[in-house]
Amino acid sequence: MEALEVMGNNIANAPTSGYKADREFYRLFETADSRLDARLDAPLGERRWMPVVEGSVIDFAQGPLIQTAGPLDVALTGPGFLVVQAPNNDLYTRSGSLQRSSTGVLSTLDGHPVVGSRGEQIILPATGEIDIRPDGTVSVDNLVVGQIHVVEFPGRSPLTKAGHSYFAATEGVLPQPASATTIKQGYVEGSNVDPTKEAVNLIMATRHFEMMRRVASMVGDQMDGRAVEELGRSS
Q1: Helix, strand, coil tally for the chain in percent (to 5)
Q2: Any idea of the CA torsion for 154, 107, 131, 96, to the nearest 10 degrees?
Q3: Rounded CA gap, 7 and 164, in Å?
Q4: Per-residue three-class SS string for 184-199
Q5: 77 CB contacts (<8 Å, ≥6 apart)?
Q6: Structural domain boundaries of the chain?
Q7: CB 168 within 8 A of CB 153
Q8: Residue whose C-alpha is closest to residue 88's, from 163, 13, 152
Q9: Helix and strand tally (H, E) in the chain?
Q10: Whole-structure pTM value
Q11: pLDDT tens-digit map of 102-121
Q12: What is the dihedral sign for C-alpha 127, 93, 1, 46?
């Protein structure tokens, strides 16, 4: 059921820009029978184990770049993240569908201001041709108005999801300035979910679930039958 939930959420967010898939991982649960097998010196491969979902991890693999030609659409190539201001703390995102707010602030579609390289908000004039360079420098009619702040996290990214396309850093973890990430204007990064593959996995997991449900039902019926027999003998 946990695996079905993870896969279903991935499929639902396949069209979400910048979405990163969750991948479940498993461990082997040692049953009482397995411990008995160990005492009987049964070979490891013949012991009875049961795989269970241990949890899920975020797959930060690069998603496909989708051309939009929108002057405020940006895609990141590399491991970096845009920094945005949320009500309680900074968040990080790979979703580059940006807009100019009513007050001229460069923001996400949800209204979170995009943070500049000096921690400032980037203010865009009401008119003018917008150019965003690979290093994040934003110019309007050749006049530099700011630079988009892009950060990276060392090692295995210590991020947790804070919405469909936002991430929050774990306490005590500080991002570093991006060194291996560039920005591409006029593109957005699509979800890294492969809908076809996820649909196949979902079907297989559903069939597995149904099979286990039937087995559990059969075992329950057998136990009920034995109980009736025992009661009959004792009476």
Answers
A1: 25, 35, 40
A2: 50
A3: 14
A4: EECEEECCCCCHHHHH
A5: 62, 65, 181, 182, 183, 184
A6: 2-60+193-234, 65-189
A7: no
A8: 163
A9: 3, 17
A10: 0.76
A11: 999 999 999 999 999 999 99
A12: positive
